[in-house]
Every structure is written in structure tokens, then in C-alpha cells.
Amino acid sequence: MQYLTEITRLLDGALKGDRSRVVDYANQLIAKLRSENNAKSAERLQSVLARSGGAIGVQHVSPSVPVDSESRYPLADELHPKKSEISLFLDDRILDRVREFLSQVEFSDELLAAGVGITPTMLLHGPPGTGKSLTAQYIAASLGLPLLVARVDTLVSSFLGSTSKNLRNLFEHASRRPCVLFLDELDAMGKLRDDQHEMGELKRVVIALLQNIDNAGGNIVLLAATNHPHILDRAIWRRFQFHVSIDLPSESVREELIKSLLSGESISFSITKIAALASGMSCADISSIVRDSIRHRVVNKEPEVCFRYLVRRIIETRLGIHLPGELPEPQVIQQIHLLNEKVLTLRVLADLFNVSPPTVGRRLKETSQAKATSNG
After folding, report:
1. Looking at the predicted structure, is the pLDDT value of residue 217 above 70?
2. How far is CA 342 from CA 43, 143, 273, 349, in A?
3. Does pLDDT of 287 surpass 90?
């Protein structure tokens, strides 16, 4: 049955006397009808809402995001991402899972009619800066829904019992309107309950989180993310239908990202080599470095992005050091060289430190001789 998802939520809201929820989901159904060129049905629903005296049609304003009772800060930030403004750089394996998730949400009517329904929940996990938050924005934008990003700093209260209450208020708010709820930094609320270092209150928070997820059922598109999947309670994992590991980008993804960032720039170096040198770096770190290189070009009024500046920044980030202007000690120059010997040739290293290639070669040889002496 078409529109079964919206009708089910409308009926649920009506039976519970939740006028705001009825109006929000009615407006979602009206927008869906119009997008499918069913203007006549949309207008009929619109007139019913208008006669009710409490609806403002598609311009209806959803209820305000709830706030923490102590600090009065909102429990979530509401974003309205647009797909045209999001550039998502992920491996095909990850994109396929995201598309599968979106397909299940979009075909919720058919799945519900088939008696299987859906649990629209996804847990994103992986290192920082790999695109978990951006993926959440992409999903919300693809579904045409606002994104409620839970504010962990506000949700987790120092007052006994307040965190559980905040969670309940946020989930109830999200269930009353069409939206995507995103629990970033999930590990702050969903740590293992057998962790001996955690206090009883935090263990009760995990139980509250589980209960809220269960009560939400299929009424909320729920996304969550963590940089520390190993400390999540096992019961948390079971509440999410989709588990998506977003790892550090492959070389092909890094190259695609750098090419996109430099699309409007004049360059005379190989993007493939830069992508190879950026091995083991996150998309966030790569984006930051490339943008800094563009700023450097603008500030210094240079005709093109400087290859040497870009390489220096990547080396510094990967090794966690600040490169001196002069040729560094033998051990350091070898560390640099070993990052990628094909890209960081003697000529490139010589240009990096304003010396000749033979000078770099001698410095590297000093390291080899020192190692041979110590081993002997």
C-alpha cells in the first residue's frame, strides 16, 4: 500500500492526541504527493489541514528542540543539509551500504505492506575525520529531512537522572516529526556496562539509551557514530540494523578528494603522487592541508599551488613534527624518505630543504653507516 508509512504515523499521532505530529507527517505526505505529481490529492489534504485551523500547510513550524532543564541549552542542533552542497568521498563498499540503507527507508511502504517492516538505524564507526558526520548529513539530505545532531555536552548532565530524562525528551521530540536523529560520539553514552571504571549512573544511561531506541521502533531514522567502537556496550550494537565501518580513505578516494579540492586551481604537479604521499591520512586532514595550500598561494600571490608547501604539510602531519628550514638530522631525513621513496626522491627532498640532491644522498648514507656501526 502506497504511503503506508506516513498514514501509520499519522494514525499513531492522532490516537495519541499529538496534534503537532499529525500536522508534521501530514505535511510530509503532502510534499511527497506533490513530488510525485499527485497535485489533486495534495490539495485535498492541504484543504483538510487548513480547515482544522491549526495547520499552516507546508510552512508549518515544527516544535522547538527540547532543552536541558538545568543549563537551558538545546539537546540537539537542527541542520537542513542539501545534497547539492555535500561532497562525499568514500570507498564504493561504504557507499553501497549507505545506498542500501536509503533504499530501505525509501521503500518503507512496500516493506511494511510485505509484513517485514524496517528498523531504520545505522551505526557508523571508524577513525576521526573519515566522514561519519558528513555521511549523516548526506543521508538526511537524500531523504529530504532535517538532521537533529544530538549535543553530547548538553545531553550528558552532571545531575543524577538528568541524562536519562534528556535522552527521553530528545527521542520523544524526534518521534513527533519527520527527521533524522544523529547521535554523534555515541561512546559517551553507550559504554560497556561491565567497565569497572564507570559509575552506576553512566550504566543507567546505557539502559535508558537502549529503552529509548526500542521505544522508537521504526518511527525514527536513527544514525549514530563513534570513534571508539571497542568500548560500546554489546547491546547497543544489536539495536542498529546497519553497521558501517568508515576506514581511512584508499588511495583512489584520496586522489578523487584532492582533485576535487584543487579543481579550480592551477597546478604543475601530479595529484596521484600527492595522494600516494597522503597514505594513512583522514579525509579531514587532507582537506585541511589542501585548503591551507590554497590559502598560502593566495596570501603569497603565487600563480599556482606550491608543491613544496603541500609536501611539507603532509610530511609534518604524518610524522607529527615541525620541519626546519635547513636539512634535518640524518635520522629525521630517513624517516621522511621512508614515507614514500617513490614520491620523496632525492631531488624532491633537495628542493624541500634548498640543498643539492647529492647532499641529501650523503645525509641518508650517514644514517645507513650509523646503523651498520651499531649493529656491528
Report:
1. yes
2. 65, 44, 9, 11
3. yes
